[in-house]
Each structure stands twice: as structure tokens, then as C-alpha cells.
């Protein structure tokens, strides 16, 4: 399965001998797979199969699924809840000897909650089977359309992410090859700092100064962070070249990108390297924001 985004919309129409129906599925970003259904009365038995099909097709996203009878389709029939009606009438008879009140009107009885149920006309088993088969085919069509739409958007997102990843790689290379990181440049900066201290008249032991300078140079070394960033770039490229749900793994890599970049900025003792690190942070934030749209 190709990489998908988590946003999309699909609509599919289907029909049986009595009615036409319309499926609609809306998909937005989500941490997991959250399915919310809205079905006409009498079709609740379809819910397990609907959830099973959606769970097989999608790994993440908030899905709102609705099924409605199409305009011009056969109307639902109103059915009286006979048990509720008998109960209400019995109560009226029991209270009539105690309370002087007008008998209940028909409109009042029909407005009692649960007194009237709207449902499809009763079908025999064969007709119900044909209807459910038609609804299943319509749902399959809607799922396919949504999947195709999410894949198209996913392909566009992958292109954006690959471009951002190439820019990340270029900035990592710029850090690696920065003239400010050469031993000569580091030695020159330390020499200037030491000269400033000595000119200020500080009584400093030259041997101790040399030791501290070597320690500072070691702490400022960025080799480990650069190597890890390169490894993360390679891993992210592989994920974007693959298929299936990759959003969570890319989000983890984006966090690792950010962690290593923060370390580079904190360890850097050169303004040029710090500036590249800040550019990296901005780009990584943009990269991570786009990842939130991937399944």
C-alpha cells in the first residue's frame, strides 16, 4: 500500500430494488484510527462489518462515516410502539378517576418519546440480503475512492518531505564542512580568547590554560551529532521511499533530528555553525509539521 495522507473525502451511491443510498466518508488527522458511524435506523447490524472493512483499509485517521437514503428514495415508515401506547393509555385510565382532565389528543400521544419509530419497511430475508450486499458494495466503492484520494495527497506530501529532507542533508553537510570547525579555526579562536585574558592581566598558568583549551575543543566537537544526523537522514529517505503507514516513525526521526540540532547549537563555539543550526531547527519544525498529515 502506498503512503497515504490522513485527510480526504469520498462519496458513493448504491441501490437495491427498493431504495438508493449514499455513503460518505470524511477523514482527518488522528493519532490512531477513530471511526464514527451514522446509520439509518434498522441498519445498526452493519456496524461490525463496516468497522472491519475500514480497519483493513486504513491505519490512522479520524473517520466520519454516514449512510443516508438518497433523495427520491423510498421513505421510512412510521411504526407505533404498541407496548408504549398501551402503557400510556392504561395510565390515562388509571388517573382519569383521580384527575379531572381532558382525554389525551392524538398529536400529544405521538409526541411522546419512543412512541413512534421511523424505520425501513419490513423486508424478507432475501430482500434484506440483497440490500445488505448492495450497501456493502457501495461501502467498498467509497473506501476505494477515499484510499485513492489519500494516496494522491500522500504522494504530494512525500515530494514535499523529500525536498525538505534534501535541504536538511545540505545543512548537515554545511555544518560538517564549515571552516569554523577546522582545527586551525578552533585554535585561532581559543588563542584570541586566551590573549584577551592575558592582556587583562589575569595570572593564569600556561599549562592549565592549554589543558582547559584542549577540554573545550573536545566538548565543542560535533562529529557524533553530525554522524547521527546523517544516519537519521538515511533512515527518513528509506521510509519515504517505502510504503504503508510511516507517519509515526517519521515523527520519531523528526524528534531525533531536533535533539541532535539542539545539541549542535549548544556545543557550537562558532557563530557560523550556530546560524546553520538555527536554520536546521526551522526546517526540521516544518518537516515535522508536514509529517503530522501522514498516515
From TrEMBL:
Q: Domain (Endoribonuclease YicC-like N-terminal): give its ranges.
A: 3-157
Q: Does the keyword Hydrolase apply?
A: yes
- Give the Pfam families listed for this entry: YicC-like_C, YicC-like_N
Hydrolase recorded as keyword = yes
Q: Which cofactors are named for this entry?
A: a divalent metal cation
Q: Per the database entry, which stretches of residues form a coiled coil? A: 212-239
Range of residues in the leader sequence:
none
Residue stretches making up the Endoribonuclease YicC-like C-terminal domain: 177-295
Keywords on record = Coiled coil, Endonuclease, Hydrolase, Nuclease
What family does this chain come from, according to its entry? Belongs to the YicC/YloC family.
Protein name per the record: YicC family protein
- Organism of origin is Pseudohoeflea coraliihabitans
Upper lineage is: Bacteria, Pseudomonadati, Pseudomonadota, Alphaproteobacteria, Hyphomicrobiales
Amino acid at each position: 500500500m502506498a503512503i497515504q495522507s490522513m485527510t480526504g473525502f469520498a462519496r458513493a451511491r448504491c441501490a437495491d430494488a427498493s431504495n438508493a443510498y449514499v455513503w460518505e466518508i470524511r477523514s482527518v488527522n488522528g493519532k490512531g484510527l477513530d471511526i464514527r458511524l451514522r446509520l439509518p435506523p434498522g441498519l445498526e447490524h452493519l456496524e461490525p462489518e463496516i468497522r472491519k472493512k475500514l480497519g483493513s483499509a486504513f491505519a490512522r485517521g479520524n473517520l466520519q462515516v454516514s449512510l443516508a437514503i438518497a433523495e427520491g428514495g423510498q421513505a421510512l415508515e412510521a411504526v407505533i410502539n404498541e407496548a408504549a401506547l398501551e402503557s400510556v393509555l392504561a395510565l390515562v385510565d388509571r388517573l382519569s378517576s383521580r384527575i379531572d382532565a381532558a382525554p389525551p389528543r392524538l398529536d400529544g400521544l405521538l409526541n411522546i418519546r419512543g412512541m413512534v419509530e421511523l424505520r425501513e419497511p419490513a423486508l424478507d430475508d432475501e430482500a434484506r440480503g440483497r440490500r445488505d450486499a448492495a450497501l456493502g458494495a457501495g461501502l467498498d466503492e467509497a473506501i476505494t475512492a477515499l484510499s485513492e484520494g489519500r494516496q494522491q495527497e500522500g504522494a504530494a506530501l512525500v515530494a514535499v518531505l523529500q525536498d525538505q529532507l534534501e535541504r536538511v542533508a545540505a545543512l548537515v553537510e554545511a555544518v560538517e564542512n564549515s571552516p569554523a570547525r577546522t582545527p586551525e579555526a578552533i585554535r585561532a579562536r581559543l588563542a584570541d580568547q586566551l590573549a584577551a585574558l592575558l592582556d587583562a592581566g589575569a595570572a593564569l598558568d600556561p599549562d592549565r590554560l592549554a589543558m582547559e583549551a584542549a577540554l573545550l575543543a573536545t566538548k565543542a566537537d560535533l562529529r557524533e551529532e553530525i554522524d547521527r544526523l546523517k544516519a537519521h537522514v538515511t533512515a527518513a529517505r528509506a521510509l519515504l521511499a517505502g510504503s504503508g503507514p510511516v507517519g509515526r516513525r517519521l515523527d520519531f526521526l523528526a524528534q531525533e533530528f531536533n535533539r541532535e540540532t539542539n545539541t549542535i547549537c549548544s556545543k557550537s563555539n562558532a557563530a557560523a555553525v550556530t546560524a546553520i543550526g538555527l536554520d536546521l531547527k526551522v526546517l526540521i519544525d516544518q518537516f515535522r509539521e508536514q509529517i503530522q498529515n501522514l498516515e
